[in-house]
What we know:
This protein has 590 residues and is α/β, with parallel strands linked by helices. The protein has 20 helices and 23 strands. It starts with a strand and ends in a 6-residue tail after the last strand. It comes from Streptomyces yokosukanensis.
Amino acid sequence: MIVLGLSGLPYAQDHLLKNTTDPHPLDERNVQGLDSAACLVVDGRVIAAAAEERFDGDKGTGRFPANAVDYVLREAGIDKDDVQAIAHGFNYDRHRRLFAGSQDYFDAVLSSATMLESLHDAGWGNVQERFHAVDHHLAHAASAYYPSGFASALCIVSDGMGETESLSVFRARDGHLEKLHSQPISQSLGLLYSICTRFLGFASNSDEYKVMGLAAYGDPVPFRELFDTLVTFDDTDGAIQVNWPSGALGNPELGYPKAMQYLESVAFPSPAQNGEVVTEQADFAAALQARLTAVLTSLTNHWLRRTGETSLCLAGGTFLNCKANQALCDLPAVERAFVQPASGDDGTALGAALHITQELGAPYVGRPEGFQPYTGPSYTTDEVRQALQERSEHGGIDWTYVGLGDDYYTAAARDLAEDRIISWFHGRMEFGPRALGNRSILGLPKGDRIKERINSLVKFREPFRPFAPAVLDEDRDRLFETRAFAPTRYMLCTARVREDQRAAVAGIVHADGSARIQDVREEYNPGFWALLKAVKRQTGTGCVVNTSFNVKGQPLIMDPRTAIDTFLRTSLDRLYIEGFIVQKAATSTS
């Protein structure tokens, strides 16, 4: 059984830009259907998955994932006609009557016909017979439940919105998902967080992770009453209530003006963000984060009690929030947890494919070591050599081939021990927003001003942004306090840095004493594990700063040419790429 999964609404962004007069740049993502992606599942096995942004460079794009589709088919060695089912992670058609007053918009953006048309334009035939529309939250739930490997679990989905829902609770058992509870868009936690992100001067549906980072610098007390009133939880029915004033969620294309007016009336004028930490903004972010964490904790506890489940699966953009995930993983009733690494809408391509695969009688087949997010393109030694040779013709780089042996890992570890910042490009690209050791920028956690150097000279991003550590499993418990559930493998859960170790890893300790860790084990990523072992031999600790290989506004790097170009336009010291060591050529002076 060969199933192609798709995410995205191909015409949503174009429709907003075409029908909105001078939209603010921070509001250009106030649409559904972003983060388009493709995934291919063959006989229950995930063969390949990737987001379209990695191919076309348009970060977060929701347009038809033509390049991603071509890649996953090529990776499997199959043709369009070999695909037996096409699964899309939206199912608006069954809600058509709710859009009676906006049929033109429905037909132009939301209808499954838009995806069918895009497939046809991309050269696909016989698509109607193969096409399956999957409810958005069901696709999210499937993306977490099946890869978790749990026989039964409580599965919670939370995002800005699905077709008509913003939060859903499922009971997962024996390969099937039963919906127990859902909440309408008016009660959306994800939408609340996005609107508050915009209020703080960041881009909606894009920069929520910046607000999470900013929150660590603030005190929630000044705005606690505001958020306690705005967001409530009812333990009798297990529902969250977001108490917006009437009309607050109107005109998203204009940045939710009534919601902005409300927040300004109860907080402060919406600021222009300049990258600096301002006390009232940090306090607002801290109160927002604290309330999100509190209500998700109450909701999860309620449904764990009602179902008797002890395993927890999470998906949807809300659960890219690592601080909230830590609180949920720390609940006494939770014995194990899994968060889908691609919890945003890109992950619904995977979830839709897995759901239809299950429905058609081919259950998910996992890997012994657990879910692997390394599902993107990889490149051979010859392909990398060719890219280096082409770039060398223009000057600017020197390179040598060492091969993927001890000398290579030792050289990289020595560079890190000597406080150089390196880029690390190996194997298959990660699926989801986190760089997990295959497309990474790495540094020494106790390096001189390591956080400031990477933020200002390499990533060109806000100075308050934290960095995550990748740590050997054998050193994890010495450095961090964590239950080491599956989310720590994927940089999806924070952990407390042990007091007596903070000086040794100062560059990854956030303002609140936490760190968003990646627990690296040999069976998950042998090459990255080998590097950390070499780092431990050089420094005594198998831990590095790990941030994504890209710069501000650029998607995670996919291919060697982009890696080389990005290396040359930043202050990175070395590029380690598939056995090649690359450095900038010395410039001659006369």
